[in-house]
Amino acid sequence: MSKQTFDLAAQSLRELNSALHALNGQTNQTAWDVVNPKGSHAIAAGLDAPLDVTVHGSTGYYCAGMNKHATVRIKGSAGPGVAQNMMSGAVIVDGDASQYAGATGRGGLLVIKGNASSRCGISMKGIDIVVHGNIGHMSAFMAQSGNLVVLGDAGDALGDSLYEARMFVRGKVKSLGADCIEKEMRPEHYDLLEDLLRRGEADAKAKPEEFRRYGSARKLYNFNIDNADAY
Amino acid sequence: MTSEFPHTPPRKSYTFSDAANAEIRRAAASGIYDIRGGGTKRYLPHFDDLLFLGASISRYPLEGYREKCSTDVWLGTRFAKNPIHLDIPVTIAGMSFGALSGPAKEALGRGASAAGTSTTTGDGGMTEEERGHSKTLVYQYLPSRYGMNPDDLRRADAIEVVVGQGAKPGGGGMLLGQKISDRVAMMRNLPKGIDQRSACRHPDWTGPDDLEIKILELREITDWEKPIYVKIGGARPYYDTALAVKAGADVVVLDGMQGGTAATQDVFIEHVGQPILACIPLAVKALQDLGMHRKVQLIVSGGIRTGADVAKAMALGADAVAIGTAALVALGDNDPVFEAEYQKLGTTAGAYDDWHEGKDPAGITTQDPELYNRFDPVLGGRRLKNYLKVMTLEAQTIARACGKNHLHNLEPEDLCALTMEAAAMARVPLAGTDWYPGKNGF
């Protein structure tokens, strides 16, 4: 198996994604280095094979968007919408992530080793997100399912109007959004969290018992006039 | 003592009409705004207020049954490797599985494919019924992203980024608990039976500069094969069209306020947006100002019912139209044959709009198996095909009478307006004059 290197200073984004899309599960060209990303958008978007792509530098919008099966590691920071609508696989950001990280993700694992900006995990639908630092306001807005783990603090309106997603925050939560409440940590949540921290490369930094769990109060699931002020 | 003079006859207020008072009482009793399906029910200036001039000494007509009048349309010729070629310029607008039953979606696919046109998914993901029965399927990319996945993106024939909808520009979707069945809940990743309210704007982009990058991402994911449509509601059609073009759209879909919805607040349907007649000329002007008319195609929708409406929309500069409500009526929605059942629901055929309640006697806007199993998708598909063919024949009839050998050759000069309002909106002369309001500054 040879490692492929792709230089975005010499070749185009289209050539990169076209080459990656041409690979399937039977390829032996699974390891790729992408150099000179220089904030390009949509790097490694739409992958559909168990590739291992390392981007050496910071990326623009939608890196690894709609990822399936692949592992994409960003040796830098990620622009807005990293791993948006990810289906499976893993995306690891060594630096910070801009807004909408992991938006609408349906599966897989997103790890952000720095901080994540606003709307992290917005509308998430099954993805697991582990943020080693802090997350910004309106994170997990309308989050439907999946897990959001935050080792640092959360900004305003965490989990506003969420459905069945779980959130675990170790630090302070500035405020909770509509219909989001703190919930009891039960044994299964400690087990879940232990696994998430391990997979999120954060088990050396935090222990499950240091976290609080947040989720939906389920009071806005059906319209009730007595809750009108919350809408 | 009784007066010997006649009483003043009872006089009801125009402002506080029976309908207005009934709504006040309903709001007071329930504490919630009125939710319903469909489009606006108010009077609006519309295509009915335009007429074709027909041929004369200076324009000669084409022979009705012998001389060719083509109807095909290419969509997505700007950037897509695989643009779409349709036999007729009447497409089926986006309507979700969830809002509609599986058999109804199947019927739309059957009818559209038989007539040589496309169907469109909706706010609930792509079903096998519609993919399997639609030769050409447009996959909507909506703020909710319910069911969104790259496999369906790749098996779609085009992608429609939905920014707005004519019935509710600035509003998100709504699907109440009665229609969140097990299957709908699973496809949308939601708990069964909840009142689902979709987001009104996309979760991972805002504004035209972001949209440009989002379109780039969708093109990259699909290897630049698929046409990318951008759908806008009739809010600010000049600027929205220009910005969609700037963002890289292949096709702009413009939906006026007559366009329907599965469910939203009545106040939204009736009070937000502009009629399609007012929107088309502004969108066409934006395309012309950018030198992109006919290069970025324009599909318009909202109140299209007949071939005359199709011809008028195209004469104003559209490349194609989309129908939603009319397609449902063709399938059997609001058919008087179900009058007894409409009466039981407290309504009447032609007025039934509680689509969100999922009790549709026609089996179209429901997830109740007992109701949707009444609906025959093969028959429904045949009815839709017939209707689409009739619309096309009607539009051809008019085009030939105007001397055009292709529907796309219809032009504003073929039209006049019956009212000042229509003349001003459509920017075609008031009948009997060479003037419309605003022309030459007057």
Automatic annotation (TrEMBL), chain A:
Domain of life per record: Bacteria
Extract the PANTHER family matched here.
Answer: TUNGSTEN FORMYLMETHANOFURAN DEHYDROGENASE, SUBUNIT C (FWDC), TUNGSTEN-CONTAINING FORMYLMETHANOFURAN DEHYDROGENASE 2 SUBUNIT C
* Organism of derivation: Albidovulum litorale
Lineage of the species this protein comes from: Bacteria, Pseudomonadati, Pseudomonadota, Alphaproteobacteria, Rhodobacterales
Q: What is this protein called?
A: GXGXG domain-containing protein
InterPro entries the record matches:
Glu_synth_asu_C_sf, Glu_synth_lsu_3
TrEMBL record, chain B:
Q: Where is the composition biased (Low complexity)?
A: 109-121
Query: What Gene3D superfamilies does this protein's entry cite?
Result: Aldolase class I
> Which stretches does the entry tag as region Disordered?
109-132
Show the CDD domains listed in the entry: GltS_FMN (cd02808)
Annotated InterPro entries = Aldolase_TIM, GltB, GltB_archl_type, Glu_synthdom
Residue intervals of the Glutamate synthase domain: 80-332, 356-404
Q: Which domain of life is it from?
A: Bacteria
Q: Which UniProt keywords apply?
A: Oxidoreductase
Indicate the family of this protein: Belongs to the glutamate synthase family.
Protein name (record) = FMN-binding glutamate synthase family protein
Q: What is the lineage of its organism?
A: Bacteria, Pseudomonadati, Pseudomonadota, Alphaproteobacteria, Rhodobacterales
